[in-house]
Prior knowledge:
With 346 residues, the protein is α/β, with parallel strands linked by helices. The chain is built from ten helices and 14 strands. The chain has helices spanning 13-22, 28-38, 53-62, 134-152, 171-182, 202-210, 226-232, 241-255, 273-283, 308-320; strands spanning 6-7, 63-64, 69-75, 81-86, 92-99, 104-107, 111-112, 130-131, 158-161, 194-198, 216-220, 259-263, 288-293, 324-328.
Amino acid sequence: MAATKKDIRALTKEQLREFFEKQGDKAFRGNQVYEWLWQKGAHSFEDMTNVSKETRQMLEDNFVINHIKVDTMQRSNDGTVKNAVRLHDGLIVESVLIPTATRTTACVSSQVGCSLDCRFCATARLKRMRNLNPDEIYDQVVAIDNESKLYFNRPLSNIVFMGMGEPLMNYNNVIKAIDKITSPEGLGMSPKRITVSTSGVPKMIKKMADDDVKFNLAVSLHSAIDEVRTTIMPFNETFPLEDLREALEYWYAKTKRKISYEYVVWKGINDTQKDIDAFVKFCKYVPCKVNIIEYNPIDDGEFQQASNEALENYISHLEKNRIVVNVRRSRGKDIDAACGQLANKS
Ligand code: SAH
């Protein structure tokens, strides 16, 4: 019986209103229930106290509320919180709360596992099991917003789609989730505070530009030399840098918004002057800023963080060319919550 019930949160507000009308009730009841589901975060029909008992029973007979459940929560010495989130079918994804002095950032997952094969990333080893639904993405954000209020006395300020999965391979659901996050009927957050990070799927970057999205775009570049990038991110063979460049130029022409490049420097992989020169050149195609990310080891040493000297060399060349560079220290390493470490180990 339960298996045939529909997830009520897959319905739009309009569909909920129509459902009530068909039941001979007032369409307005749909608004009330919608508010319970999305603004008040009700986990059961029982919670909907301004809805009559009969109506609640009727909803119970027709629908389920497929909420995520935070299974385990770990807190790092540096304040970072990692949630292992159980989905209605028992699968698990992870999301992370990253506090700084002035902001709280949620790092959320878009897929269970990942279909890409970046050789330095723990999530890639899980393979892609399924896409997350819009409400499963939204719920991760709500859970972290609540934790932020509880532990840091402030609401969530930023969201990055840098958890498990490739958001542009689950584009429609990511967009629906962001619509809900930014809508006044959801969390009412500004899209300017949301960043979608991609390994670089050119066709989808162009689609985003055409869709006139208002959030920020980050691209995990890691190398601006095709041969090198293909070794560490094999899908670069299918989506080479030239295609990526063209898509990014298209994005900038349409949105006029800077792109962020995520970049890790590894010993013996991309730490030579040739790598730096190629990156600086790539950075000039489209207005951008650079985030150098510290490498978080996931295995027995195939990849190693480059020397400080190599990092300094990157930074000085970028800065000489007037490119803004931030160096991002890892957060939550002690609980495997840092970039690329999300792999359901706990
Ligand atoms: N698929 C998306 C989002 C997930 S990864 C993307 O590729 O952008 C989030 C960021 O962490 C990416 O920049 C990714 O390249 C980086 N990353 C992956 N594994 C890492 C590791 N072991 N150490 C540091 N950064 C890593």
